[in-house]
Every structure is written in C-alpha cells, then in structure tokens.
Amino acid sequence: MASSSSSSPSALALSSQLWQYHVFLSFRGEDTRKNFVDHLYTALEQLGIYSYKDDETLPRGESIGPSLEKAIEESQIAVIIFSKNYADSVWCLDELVHIMKCKDTRGQIVMPIFYDVDPSLVWKQKQKYGEALAKHELENKAKAESWRKALVDASNISGWEPQHIANG
Question: Which GO terms describe its biological process (predicted)?
C-alpha cells in the first residue's frame, strides 16, 4: 500500500494541476525503508510536503504498474535514494527510467541522494552497480541499456551524500 501525506495545508503550493504530489520517493526498500526513507518521509509530512512513498513489495522480476507510473508522473519532484542494492531491483531501475523520462518531458525536478554509496560507483556502474547491471543484461539487454543511461543521467545531477553531512 502506498503512503502519502495529506495533513495540514502544504508549505509548498502545487504549481499546477499537473502535480498530485510534491515529492515521489524512489528507493530500495531493503536498504532504506525502515531508516532513512521513513525519517525523510516523516520530515516532509511534518513540513506539509505531500509525498508519495510506495510501501508495497513487488515480486522479483515484475514491472512497475500503471498506478506507480501515474504517481511518478504526478509528482513535481522525484527524490532518488541510491543505495548499495538499488540497482539489484529491476523495479527501482524501471522507476528510474520513468522518472528521467518525466524530467525530460514534464519538467520534473530530480534530486538524487547517495545513501551509503559513492556517486562515482553509480555513474561509472562499478562494484555492486556494475555487477547488478551485468546480471540484468543477460536477461534483457535492451532494458539494461536504458537502465544504464538513466543511472548515468541521474548520477550526473548534483545530489546529496548524507554521510558527508554532520550527523548524516
């Protein structure tokens, strides 16, 4: 089940009818759901920032559904939380491709967060990112190419590294 905050009037006005949410959170649940993402979601909610966080676990190998694609499309900002196992998930990678498409076609703002992962590993697709993509490529070469491009494009956007921030 997806979560979205809907408490007090928003601190950020949704700029047009295009946007249903201020923020869409893209993350690998097993890495970040019960710590960083829950804290971030709660902080956004307390600030009146209407956010979408998918709480469902998709079975391995399944694609993201139309309702998740719609939530991405209707979000003004996409926060991508890259973590050690983000690239292991085809679901996360499919979300990422759709987010980058929305950045190009809808003007969505993309904000990467590199949670316990060096941005250069994402950009260069080294170590766990390279291993995951090599494995995915064996199953679907065409999709793997779009995932690689989306990872490069997203990791080239200036982002945050919580481990380099005080108390991060």
Answer: signal transduction
